Amino acid sequence: MDWDQVELVGVVATGSVVRYFASGGLTRGDFPWGAFFVNITGSFLLAVVFFLAMGRGFITSDLRALVFVGIFGGYTTMSTFSLETVTLLTEGQLGWAAANVFLNGGLCVVGAYLGRAVGMLLGGA
User: Fold this and answer.
1) Do 72 and 18 share a structural domain?
2) 2, pLDDT greater than 70
3) CA 40, 42, 48 angle in degrees (round to 5)?
4) Residue 16, number of CB atoms within 10 A of its CB
C-alpha cells in the first residue's frame, strides 16, 4: 500500500465519522431523518465544491478524487448519484437522467429487499 492509498483511507474514515455524528442525533421515529440529512447535505456540498472547482479550475484530478471519493464517498454515496443526475440533466440527457433515478432509486431498493430475503433464508434475524 502506498501513501496515496493510506491518505485516501484516512480521508474516507473522516467522512464516515462525520456521517456518524451528523446522522446519529437526528434518527428518531419511523423515518430515517439522519440518513436524509446526510444525503441532502452531502449532495448540496458536493455540487457546490464540484461546480466551483470546475468553474475556477483550481482542483487537480488527484485532489478531486481525494475530496469526492474520499470525503464525500465516506460521508454519503447519495451525493455522487445526485451530482451525476444533475450533470445528465444539464447536458440535456433527460432519458439517461430519468433512468439513473429509476435504477438507483428503485432497483437498488429492490436489490436491498432481495438481499434481506436471502439473509433471512440463510438464517438471519
Assistant:
1) yes
2) no
3) 105
4) 14
Regarding whether 111 and 81 lie in a shared domain, the answer is no
9, 19, 101, 116 from 14: Cα distances, Å: 9, 9, 28, 29
Q: Which three cell numbers stand for residue 33?
A: 431523518
Task: Give the model confidence (pLDDT) of 50-65 as tens digits.
Answer: 888 877 777 787 787 7
Mean pLDDT to the nearest integer, 97-123: 83
**Whether residues 105 and 118 fall in one domain:** yes
pLDDT in tens, 7-24: 667 777 888 888 888 777
- Whether 49 and 56 have beta carbons less than 8 Å apart is answered as no
**Can you give the residue range of the structural domain that contains 114?**
94-125
Helix, coil or strand: residue 93: coil
